[in-house]
Amino acid sequence: MTSSSMAKTLVKTFLKAPHSLKTKIQAKQLHAQFLKTQPYSPSSTSILISIYSNFNLLQHSLLLFNSLNSPPLLAWKSIIKCYSSSGLFANSLTCFVKMRSFGIHPDHTMFPFVIKACVFLKNLRLGESIHGCIIRLGLDFDLFTGNALLNMYAKFQSLQLKGGSKGFAFNVFDGMPKSDELCGRLTQERDKSVIGLDSVTKVLEMMPQRDVVSYNTVIAGNAQNGLYEEALRMVREMGNADMKPDSFTLSSVLPIFAEYVDVMKGKEIHGYAIRHLFDSDCYIGSSLIDMYANCARIEDSCRVFSLLPKRDDISWNSIIAACVQNGVFDEGLKLFRRMLTAKVKPRDVTFSSIMPACAYLTTLHLGKQLHGYIIRGGFDDNVFIASSLVDMYAKCGNIKAARWIFDQMEHHDMVSWTAIIMGHALHGHAHDALSLFKQMEKDGVKPNYVSYIAVFTACSHAGLTDEAWRFFNGMSQNHGIKPGLEHYTAMADLLGRAGKLNEAYEFISSMHIAPTGSIWSTLLSACRIHKNLKLAEKVAKEIFKVDPENVGAYVLMSNMYAASRRWKEATKMRILMKKKGIRKEPACSWIEVKNTVHTFISGDKSHPLYDRIFQALKDLLEQIEREGYIPDTNEDFHDVDEEQKKYLLFSHSERLALAFGILSTPAGTTIRITKNIRVCVDCHTAIKLISKVVQREIIVRDNSRFHHFKDGKCSCRDYW
Q1: What are phi and psi of 602, to 5 degrees?
Q2: pLDDT, tens digit, for every residue of 428-444?
Q3: 226 DSSP assignment
Q4: d(CA 677, CA 702)
Q5: Closest to 629 (Cα-Cα) out of 710, 697, 684
Q6: Which long-range contacts (CB under 8 A, 24 or more apart) does 235-243 make?
Q7: Element spanning 233, H or E
Q8: Which residue in 41, 261, 280, 357 is a FRET match for 691, CA 20 to 30 A apart?
Q9: Interacting residues of 216 by C-beta distance below 8 A, sequence separation 6+
Q10: Strand order in 713-714's β-sheet?
Q11: What is the pTM of this model?
């Protein structure tokens, strides 16, 4: 046999079994041999086009396709598939319509690609027209076509629930001859159709054959659209049809139990996954991590993660988000470092997840490092990451950086607006916060539940009572937002700070929802500030009715009795606390110096530099006394002499942290301190004077707000 005849035989063999070709190079070699050894043939050329389309070689497919005067069905099908696989969905549909105009009938294998194009173009009208065509041609029996239709209607259902399916305007059907219009039964009833649950389930019911993919598509669509009961019903129906759920089924169902916070059902799914060896699957692992995290079972989330044999970026992001959402911030940061060490590249969702940990821990240095990583990775134009950065800088005390990032953003969503408004509110810039809120409304962004909390916080820290009432009344009248517990708490806090204690009491008592211990505690704190013991006793009774274990209430009442020299009642409160096993949270302050966080507790002498810190405080005390400082011993509630009280004030945690910061940082450096409870009046006065004598800006974040001390003044103007 000659080499020429061998080549001819080989070409014919491959043309009969095109799927035996494994590489693009082999496809091109076959084409070359075909040109050398075979006469021109539309059918053979169509086979070559189909081979090129299988390798997604669009240009090669088009060259051959355009050489055909009357392309047969296989050529049309291959080019439509290639366009769709290349993301050129409009071209794919145009090609389909052109084929139909030539009177060529599609077969069942073509429609999945055409339906895919309709989904990506988000054009429901086209999708319904294609469905009509499928029914008219009697091709709705095909399993793969049915699955594609299920996916299409599920996706359009999701779009509708999220605000409509405004898609690509594509009107190629409009110019078709009347006889070839793709207007089957569904198209004729298009005006009546609603993409809801029925559209998906009807397609499933009409399918003569179903597989696991069919059920998975419906289950996933229902779960993603919040139709949880329907999704679970389909899982049961799947079991009744003797089909075993696979890993995709489980990963679709697990978020339902996460949403319901049903850890027992979630554990059942986990057990099923283990028995069927699905637990090593990354998607199942990530879904289990999310489920346990939503159910506040972070230990179980970490255990699932540790048992995964292979971890991808999704599983890393899931465990980091789980830790941060459950308040295990240090662990979240450790996992982020481990992720980088494992050479797993962070994604945009990674930074959105980890940034709140920096914000909560006020680790500005780490936040800046992450910001640098974000810029280098090209993520800084992502609106979610930019919003996280705004929130992080604001909560770490750098409101200027937060505002700069916000101003640089091209588009602002509700999250970014709320972050910057709350940032200004916490820093005492009430008028800036309210101005931003009004600008947000002008820009057409509708306020939500959280943005109003930010507004009330701003008003509270500036004593803007009248403005707050206007916003409170307007939130339901103008935007249909019903006040919630957080709004009532913010308003009660505002009235209390302003000294309108009786008005605050009446306001809480007339709430449309039952007051909690936390909202009454807000008023109790105001009673302490304004020294109204009589009302405080009344409020304390309300707190103990709904929250008998409220630590703050016992401590505040004990302190108020002590301030009034009613030592018997103060002691009684302390004894009650002891009997109930209630312990007061110790006052604690921390400061970050040279990438290390140093923590101080009031009266603590354990720090290695305590002697130097104590001496620095003595020196500072002498300097501020020359500036007119007089210790306010009324702020100490111990039954000891005045000198001992002065010492106790002297060793408050924020002062220890401040002295350490002054010793450990260069002159002129801004000092940033975080405290877990409210800064006392005496420390507030002392830090104002210290900022003047050391010529530094001192930023203190307590559990309520930020205080910017500079040149003997505070940003709160002594209203906090």
Answers
A1: -55, 130
A2: 999 999 999 999 999 99
A3: T
A4: 6
A5: 684
A6: 238/212, 241/210, 241/215, 243/210, 243/211, 243/212, 243/215
A7: helix 228-240
A8: 357
A9: 246, 248, 249, 252
A10: 596-601, 588-593, 671-675, 698-701, 706-710, 713-714
A11: 0.74
